[in-house]
């Protein structure tokens, strides 16, 4: 026995939900003042560059004390 699924309504509902998610993402980004389609910087690279000068600065201070 086969269960028949009406695919047209399923696809329409899926597309409607996907569109609503996309629209809400773009709207929330614009309300926050950000460009929703701009490439984002990787957080690992930002944290490494922020930590390296402080570590080298601390290392430079330690021998002089």
Quick take:
The protein is mostly helical and 65 residues long. It contains two helices and no strands.
List strands and helices in order, with pairings.
Layout: H1 7-31, H2 43-64
Strand content: under 5%
Number of helices: 2
Q: Runs with pLDDT <50, length 5+?
A: none
The biggest beta sheet is recorded as: none
Rg from C-alpha positions?
25 Å
Helix-strand topology string: HH
Provide the structure class: mainly alpha
Describe it.
72% of the residues lie in helices and 0% in strands. With 65 residues, the chain is mostly helical. The longest helix has 25 residues, at 7-31. The chain is elongated. The termini are far apart. 0% of the residues are buried. The mean pLDDT is 79.
Give short descriptive properties of this protein:
65 residues, 2 helices, 0% strand, mainly alpha, single chain
């Amino acid at each position: 026995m086969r269960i028949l699924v009406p695919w047209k309504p399923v696809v329409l509902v899926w597309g409607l939900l996907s569109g609503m998610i996309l629209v809400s993402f773009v709207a929330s980004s614009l309300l926050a003042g950000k460009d929703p389609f701009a490439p984002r910087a990787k957080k690992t690279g930002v944290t490494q560059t922020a930590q390296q000068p402080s570590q080298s600065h601390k290392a430079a201070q330690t021998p002089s004390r």
